[in-house]
Amino acid sequence: TPHRRARCTPPWPRPGVLALAAVLAALLALAGAAVGHSAAGSLPAGLLGGPHTSDADWTLTGILGRNLGAALLVFGGVVTGGALTAVTLPLVGVWVGATLRLALDAAGWEGAVGATVLYAPLEFAGVLLAAVAGLVPLAAALLRPRDADVVPGPLSRYLGALPSACLLIGCALLLITAAGVVEHLVVSGR
What we know:
The protein is mainly alpha-helical and 190 residues long. It is built from 6 helices and no strands.
């Protein structure tokens, strides 16, 4: 028999699995952001930090440390059956919502968006993608494939989704790193 070359395809999750993980991540993040946004009105303006709180905090290392740390924290659900993602993503959302509210109160929509438009959407997308990666194995375990002759059990589906989760976290970390470089350039140029 002739030797066939195996095609190397990225281990993307099944569309239904990706959709379920994305919906769960979006709901968790939005719930946290809503709480943070509504609660921030009673917080002192300097409590959550900002570009003028400490020069050391806005170095590239400081920015990447915070953002990559948040991404890895929400990705932790990959080894905890989604539990760590379910707990930490709303907390990250609270911080984002509160920070947004304080920025809006201080600078208005135009000022807040103008100051962050180059990097904040990339950071948020990267952290949300990291959370999706943390939830993909759980979603795979919950959703049985419809087109398979033999359906593996939930644990096999969970473990089988780990390469997909690793691919997604890699993409998220690249996105967050790019956003961090842009944020550093923007903040240091002020």
